[in-house]
Description:
The chain is an alpha+beta fold.
Amino acid sequence: xxxxxxxxxxxxxxxxxxxxxxxxxxxxxxxxxxxxxxxxxxxxxxxxxxxxxxxxxxxxxxxxxxxxxxxxxxxxxxxxxxxxxxxxxxxxxxxxxxxxxxxxxxxxxxxxxxxxxxxxxxxxxxxxxxxxxxxxxxxxxxxxxxxxxxxxxxxxxxxxxxxxxxxxxxxxxxxxxxxxxxxxxxxxxxxxxxxxxxxxxxxxxxxxxxxxxxxxxxxxxxxxxxxxxxxxxxxxxxxxxxxxxxxxxxxxxxxxxxxxxxxxxxxxxxxxxxxxxxxxxxxxx
Length: 285
């Protein structure tokens, strides 16, 4: 009898182990991934030397009455769907006339029949509908405008300059926009050092027609560091841009002489030919 009981116990143990092995070796089904109704989007814009990224989900109108109905007036809206709409700034910016440090922020709005409230909130981990006012970093009001129908909510950047851009939220027939300003001048000033960088900063200002006063100071520092044909030409072009053609011609001729003294081949270069033509034009004015 004991031998029979022992045999049953052995058989039961074998059966149990076999069942565990079979369970362990069962194939794992992959996680099913389906398209979301409000699909995700990301848009990044370089403003001067700074990056601004908006990450959001795009709800559709789908024939619904949006403002005051689907989205009641006076209530906080995540400015999108699903997860929170996020703005990321690589550097400190000015938004709505107020400073906002670099970082990532939850973006929300409060729709109204009149002005809307725009909110940048530092809490970014919770679901999109979660809003805690204690984390508000910046708030300001914006007057909405109307435009052609937009079925899927969209964020875009318009009115680009070397130091600013306008963000536009468009959905249904509403347009909500505000200006973002970056301290491009400050970043340039922070980075300048060698004569090449100083001259490059001055040429950037010359090309974009910005920071003209600062540009002359930069090129003067470049020349003080290492006087050469390149930075002398930049100074000459800045003078010409200011209408000082006589002074520009004199500095242009100095640039040609310095270039030739440093390198006998410079006189035959395309740079020298282009500068000679500019000097002739300035002399004729």
